[in-house]
Amino acid sequence: MSKLPGWLGRLGAELTDLGDRLEQRRAEAAGDETGLPVSNPAVPAGNVPSGGVPGEEARRGAGADRVPPPPSYAPSVAARPDPVAAIPWGMRVAAEAGWRLLVLAGTLWVLMRVISAVELVVLAFVAALLVTAMLQPTVARLRHYGLPRGLATAVTAVLGFVIMGLVGWFVVWQVMDNIDTLSDKVRTGIEDLKNWLLDSPFHVTEQQINDVAKNLSDTIGTNTEQITSAGLEGVTVMVELLTGMLLAMFSTLFLLYDGRRIWHWMLKLVPAQARPGVAGAGPRAWRTLTAYVRGTVLVALIDAIFIGLGIFFLDVPMAVPLAVFIFLFAFIPLVGAVISGALAVVVALVTQGVFTALMVLAVVLAVQQIEGHVLQPFILGRAVRVHPLAVVLSVAAGGMIAGIGGAVVAVPLVAVTNTVVGYLRAYGQEQALRYAPPPRGATAIDVAPTPAPGSPPGDIDHGGDDENGVDADMRKDHGK
Asked: What pairs with residue 465 in β-bridges?
């Protein structure tokens, strides 16, 4: 009876060993079906005793650590890919660019709303910048002659504003002095135009002309309230114009006197990392603006002088005021020349007849052709060269946004933006090359084919390597 517990223990151990062997054979059979090598899952390497029989701890841990393989009849389930990897690359790029464009569009929209809210102030400041760009060389020359900065600024500003005021007064005086003569000539011209239409091959009858005149009179009589409201709006516009002129005058004075300090203060608002690039782009943008304003003033003056002389010799009334209008409208590229030329042709038509109007048209076209093909490239040069399509689109967009003022400042804004963007792009490339790791080996020879400091001038390696990458000079030295 005392041997019964020992016999039961040995029987349990044998049954456990038999179960482990069955599990091992089953695992081997599964490995043969999948083609993978299978080790004994029931016997870890660290728990095998010296006699080769697995111990009690190995038998206890075998069932806990081993995960049985799925049965052969279980369906295979494919792993789901990452959602980012499932989206095509082109769509991801479009999405990344799309939300950035949306942020940029929102920023521009907010900026335009702010500008439209203070449009008068913005236009006055831009006009002050243009006037300052025109007068700044005079201030610099007076300071070079020894005048203090305040006195040079005062002399330049007073002379500039006095000259502009005298020109405006002269134009108004000429218009008021010739308004009666012009009215008589307009009536005579309309009568001559009516007779010409009756005798022309267009088969226009007097009844049709009278109907047109009657409709025009009825339209004016019917829309009296609208005309009155337009007159009141004109008074408001005049008040705003005077306010803008005062703001532009004060801004011009401070820009002429303290422009450098204002620019340095604005640089402090720029982040430190971008400050060197902006500091370099600012003077170049100012030189572009100065070249544009001075060149445009010179071209407009030449247009006004030659077209005004042509109008004067053709005996068209108010030749001097028309020349001043041509000068002012020349600051609106493309569109201004057409408007001022059409105004001169209309005045010649209603006062002197069809032949004189055709002669004025010929003079205007000739001067504008000389301007476009000779004066603009020679005076403005490459400093402010802008593509004609960009000029047309910018003038149209500026006119739609801010009227005549927007059309005037559109082209210089595009020219300055072009200069700034070009400089920042070149500056960024230079910085990338400066902080890039230096080339080594054959790459260094290719990118820097210059002699080392202290070497003879003709000691430049021109790539005389053989097929094994050995330099020709090294082979020569080795042969010696």
From this structure: 471
Single-letter amino acid code for the residue at 167: V
- Burial of residue 64 (number of CB atoms within 10 Å: 0-12, 13-18, 19+): exposed
Across the strands, what pairs with 471?
465
- Name the DSSP class of 465: B
The whole-angstrom separation of Cα 429 and Cα 450 is: 22
Calpha distance 116→133 (Å, rounded): 24
Within 8 A by CB and 6+ apart from 475, the residues are: 466
41-71 tens-digit pLDDT: 444 444 444 444 444 444 454 444 566 776 6
Q: What span, in angstroms and rounded, lies between the C-alpha atoms of 408 and 403? A: 9
Mean pLDDT of 424-428: 87
Residue/partner pairs of 35-42 with CB below 8 Å, 24 or more apart: 41/65, 41/66, 42/66
- pLDDT for res 101: 93
Query: Whole-angstrom Cα distance, residue 371 to residue 391?
Result: 16
Q: What are phi and psi of 303, to 5 degrees?
A: -60, -45
3-state secondary structure of 66: coil
Helix, strand and coil percent figures for the chain, each rounded to 5 = 75, 0, 20
| Residue 255 contacts residue 128 (beta carbons within 8 Å) | yes
Give the C-alpha separation, 239 to 120, whole Å. 11
Helices (H), 118-148: 119-144
Q: Which residues contact 345 (CB under 8 A, 6 or more apart)?
A: 357, 360, 361, 364
CB atoms near residue 276 (< 10 Å): 13
Spell out the residues 6+ positions from residue 22 whose beta carbon is closer than 8 angstroms to its own. Answer: none
pLDDT tens-place string over residues 309-354: 888 888 887 788 888 888 888 877 777 778 888 888 888 887 777 7
Residue type, 313: F
**DSSP at 379:** I
Q: Identify which of 10, 310, 352, 402 has the alpha carbon closest to the alpha carbon of residue 188.
A: 352
CA distances from 385 to 157, 282, 414 (A): 29, 18, 10
CA pair distance 308, 364, nearest whole angstrom: 10
